[in-house]
Amino acid sequence: MERPAWAPQGMDLNVPSVSRMYDHYLGGSHNFEVDREAARRAVRAWPGLPRLVQANRAFVRRAVRYAVRQGVTQFLDVGSGLPTFGSVPETALGLDPDCRVLCVDNDQVAVAHSRAVLADEPHAGIVSADLRTPRDILDSEQAEQLLDFGRPTALLLTAVLHFVADRDEPAKAVSTLGEALAPGSLLIISHASTQPGARHDCAPLLEVYGTTNAPLTLRSRAEIGGFLDGFELVEPGLTTPPHWRPDDDPPQGADPAALSVCAGVGRKAGDPG
Q: What pLDDT score does 13 carry?
């Protein structure tokens, strides 16, 4: 396979990347044929998948908007992916140019492209790190430069925890990150779910993602809610992306795929000071 000029050297171009597949679902161009083929197989398994991804991105934009309205202007976006339309830096800085945004990803293309896009933005940056090693994120030079953990911060874990297997202790990683946040901070989360409302056969999709760099782990609504321990859910609680504070009336007859994701926002208890 010919290596594009923007592809980092030493990267395996033969294994589909979940970050680059997500970029493809959103209409981005920083992905390879191996990613596009895996994405096509995933869509055949779940025809509603592109709409699910778009609904999740719209949820993220609304949650960021909510955070800024609550006076939270620092964002730690773990599993940020490719900076396509509606990214956290674009949304937050578009609402308030004084916001600070630190993106985190372990995909080399996502990191390289984010660095290029954010090169001239002093209030945003990217760190190459993994959710499974949260101290690498918190102790990074970029975190020290951009974020003040003594002030409320919005931690985003959207469409990333379902790529962390139980053996890698995702709850422990979330707890470590949450403990570093000041009272009044927000945890913004979305996660693929096995909730009954989905009524969708997950096996074909799990098979596709089993060929990627990060197999998919579906969890129950209760298990997903457990990641929010220590945070008080804000209204409307843990729901589906289309139903979390929609801009218009809640959608009727949503695609079943969109109901297979849980999304919510929690606030860390205590006086922000």
A: 72
